[in-house]
Amino acid sequence: VGAPLTEAVELVIPDRDYAIEAGFELLSDGPWGFLQLSAFHDVSGTHEGFEIDASYGIGFRYENWYIEPAIGLAYKSDDLNNYYWGVRPDEANDALPDYKAADGINPRVRLRVAYYFSREWSFALSAEYERLNDDAASSPLVERDGVLGYFAGFAYRF
């Protein structure tokens, strides 16, 4: 007589809705670079959490090129973190355990590169890596402890 067979449990990642957030942003810049402070709160009632963010960067211009590295920290509330990275009891099963994510601070780095065709037209590329805080990164929903975002597009200045 052999060991009893176990039934495989399908891993189903819970679906999350996007939130609508509103807030404010302060930006100060000069020859020393720029400092950006922002705060946003969920006004849609999706997760009812908030985020407070601070970034510093400095830009370098060479002919038609503009390069802007930046670093930052983002505090994400427990309501926000738990909504996106937590697993509710009604979503949990043998493959996906119940998990509650607390608040935390996410460090990040960003690089923006732009090429100016004229005073009005430019093309920009941007990449950002954000390291999830330990509580979010420990979630059973998370495969990697960071999030990579990127953007490419044309801009026209009036």
How does this structure look, described?
This protein is mainly beta and 158 residues long. The protein contains 2 helices and 8 strands, in the order βββββαββαβ. Strands 1, 2, 3, 4, 5, 6, 7 and 8 form an 8-stranded antiparallel β-sheet that branches. A hairpin with a 2-residue loop joins β4 (60-62) and β5 (65-76). It is elongated. The model has no long low-confidence stretch (mean pLDDT 93).
- SS element count, helices: 2
Mean pLDDT: 93
From N to C, what is the helix and strand string?
EEEEEHEEHE
Q: State Rg.
A: 21 Å
Secondary structure class reads mainly beta
Low-pLDDT residue spans: none
N- to C-terminal distance: 79 Å
Q: What is the molecular shape?
A: elongated
**Beta-strand content:** over 45%
The beta-strand count equals 8
Largest sheet: 8 strands, antiparallel
Percent helix, as a range, is under 10%
Quick tags:
mainly beta; eight-stranded antiparallel sheet; 8 strands; 158 residues; 8% helix
In short:
8% of the residues lie in helices and 49% in strands. The protein has 158 residues and is mainly beta. The longest helix is centred in the middle third of the chain and has 8 residues, at 78-85.
Topology:
Layout: E1 21-30, E2 33-42, E3 50-57, E4 60-62, E5 65-76, H1 78-85, E6 104-116, E7 121-131, H2 134-137, E8 146-156
Antiparallel strand pairs: 1-2, 2-3, 3-5, 4-5, 5-6, 6-7, 7-8
